[in-house]
Amino acid sequence: MASNGGLGSLGAEGAMSAAHALSLPAEAYGNDPQLEMMWAMKAFQHAEIYFNLISSVDPKFLRLTKADDKIYTEFREKFPNLNIQILDPEALKSEQAKEEWRPFCMQFDGTVEDYNYGTLLRLNSEKDYTEENTIFATRIQFYAIEIARNREGYNNTVFQRSSKVKINSKPEGDS
Fold it and tell me: Regarding the domain delimited by 7-168, which CATH topology (the fold level of the hierarchy) does it fall under?
C-alpha cells in the first residue's frame, strides 16, 4: 500500500492537531470536510498497518484485541454462515443487515476501545485495499471479520504471497 499524502505528510504539528481534533466529541463538529479528511486518513493508516501486519506475520498467530476469543465466538454464533472470504457489501450495509449487526456491535461498548469508529474493510480477503475492494465498516465489524479470517485461514494467501516475494527478492548467496 502506498502512503502518499497520509498522516506523515501533516508533519508533527499537523498530526498532533489532527489527533486532538479527533478526540473531541462528535457534537463539536458539523459536516466539516477537514474532519472527514482526517477520519479518512486515520482509517487509511489503520488499514495500511493491518495489511502490513498480515503480510509480515502468520495471521493465525495474531491477536487484534484482548477480547479476540469473545469477539470470534459471538460473531460466529450470530453470523455462522457469513462468507468472510469474499464479503457481499449488502451483508453489512443493507437495512436488514444493519438491524442484525447493531446488537452484535453494541455488546462491545465498553469492552473494545473505539468499537464504533469507522474503519476500512477489504471485501476479498485475498486482495489488498483498493477502491474496488474496500468498504467502510465499524471497528468491531472489522475486528470480527478479520479475527475470523485469521483463525479460519482466509488471510493466509496475503501472508504466503508476501513471504514468496521476500524469498524471491533475496540476493544470491543469502540464506
Answer: yst0336 like fold (1.10.3560)
